[in-house]
Amino acid sequence: MPILQVLLNDAGEVIGTARPDANRSGQGPDRATIVARPGQRVVEVTVPDHVARMDPNALHATIRKEHLKEHLKARPKTRSKQRRKKDG
C-alpha cells in the first residue's frame, strides 16, 4: 500500500498530496516531499492502491474522510492561533 504525504491547512483541510516513492522511471530525483508553510503541516498516511490512483478531488475527500482521524485529533496549536488568542 502506498504512503502519501498530505499537506493540511490550519482547518485540517487537505490542500495537497505527494507520493514520496513516485519516481519509478529512473529519471529525476529519487524522492519527492512536501514542505509546509506557516499555518500548514504535513502528515503521512498509508492508503490502498485504488485510493492512490484517484483524481485529486476524490483523493483529497477520501483521505480527509477515511485516513486523517488520528492526525486531526492530536492537532497541535499553531503559532498563528496562539498569537490570535494572545492578541485577542
Short note summarizing the structure:
With 88 residues, the chain is an alpha+beta fold. The chain has one domain. The chain contains four helices and three strands; from the N terminus they run βββαααα.
What does this structure look like?
The chain is an alpha+beta fold and 88 residues long. It has one domain. 33% of the residues lie in helices and 19% in strands. The chain contains four helices and three strands; from the N terminus they run E-E-E-H-H-H-H. A three-stranded antiparallel β-sheet has the order 2-1-3, covered by helices on one side. The longest helix has 11 residues. The radius of gyration is 15 Å and the shape is globular. The model has no long low-confidence stretch (mean pLDDT 81).
Based on helices, strands and strand pairing, what is the structural class?
alpha+beta
Strand order of the largest sheet: 2-1-3
Q: Which sheet architecture does the biggest sheet show?
A: 3 strands, antiparallel
The number of helical runs is 4
Mean pLDDT, as a whole number?
A: 81
Order of helices and strands: EEEHHHH
The share of residues in extended strands comes to 15-25%
How much helix, percentage-wise, in residues? 25-40%
The domain tally reads 1
The number of E-state strands comes to 3
Give start-end ranges of low-pLDDT stretches.
none
Separation of the first and last Cα atoms: 45 Å
The coarse silhouette is: globular
Rounded to an integer in angstroms, the radius of gyration calculated over CA atoms is: 15 Å
Write a concise keyword list for the protein shown above:
globular, 33% helix, alpha+beta
